[in-house]
Amino acid sequence: MSARPDSREYPRWDADKVYRVLCSKYPDAAWKQRHFRSPFQILILTILSAQTTDRQVDAIADSLFSRYPDSAALASALTPELEGIIHSTGFFHAKARHIMGASRVLHETFGDKVPDDMASLLTLPGVGRKTANIVLYHAFSKNEGIAVDTHVRRLANRIGFSSSQDQDRVENDLMELFPEGSWGHLTDVFIAHGRRCCMARGPLCEQCPISCYCAFFKKR
DNA sequence: ATCCCGAGGG
DNA sequence: CCCTCTGGAT
């Protein structure tokens, strides 16, 4: 079955303790967008956030949603105009296709309502497991999985929770290690740590509260 | 130069 | 597993 070593014989790290330590370090880790965005807006902004900073996406959010307030409007958008609005977030050709396609499916198949289950979300163009997990948790408070972005993957790789580069495998490795009800919040906490401490370059290992468990730290 | 709260395709 | 797609921030 699992190639994961038995934690009683190989106590390399204590997953539960790592999670608790990070929770106390980042009590405000929740992604702010969920506090005032609708499911539709969370979906679109999450698609747009691929390989971009959230600041760059926030910067164009108001002009995007005042021009296209719902999925019906976005489904019939003119590509050049839409691309002009989202241009600064990068990958704008693909992103315009994705959010228009997703809006069209929402309009024609889901009655202009964002579905709240994984299988339906994955039928939307531009929505993979990462985006679906973000929407499920932040728009519907559902813990169906862990959203694996570059921060979560890097953190999981470094500490030794997963050795895979594949998002789905990293997610499965993490889901085996952490209790089901924690997955949504765990995503936010891991991302917070990846951004503020366990950065790609120049990680702040000296002030990292879980470096004692970290395979990457021991090797440097 | 290198990375960013990725998806789709090979 | 790999690659490509893009602009902006650092």
Task: Kindly summarize this structure in a few lines.
The chain is mainly alpha-helical and 220 residues long.
Protein described:
With 220 residues, the protein is mainly alpha-helical. The chain has 2 domains: 15-29 and 145-218, Helix-hairpin-Helix base-excision DNA repair enzymes (C-terminal) (Endonuclease Iii, domain 2, Orthogonal Bundle), CATH 1.10.1670; 32-140, Hypothetical protein, domain 2 (Endonuclease III, domain 1). The protein is 55% helix and 0% strand. The protein is built from 12 helices and no strands. The longest helix has 18 residues, at 92-109. The chain starts with 14 loop residues before the first helix and ends with a helix. The model is unreliable at 1-11 (pLDDT under 50). The protein binds a DNA duplex (10 and 10 nucleotides) through helix 3, helix 6, helix 8, helix 9 and helix 11.
Count of discrete alpha- or pi-helical segments spanning 4 or more residues: 12
**What is the C-level CATH assignment of the largest domain?**
Mainly Alpha
Uncertain segments are: 1-11
The largest pleated sheet is described as: none
CATH topology of the largest domain: Endonuclease III, domain 1
Mean pLDDT: 90
Structural class by helix and strand composition: mainly alpha
Features:
2 domains, DNA-binding, single chain, mainly alpha, Endonuclease Iii, domain 2, Endonuclease III, domain 1, 220 residues
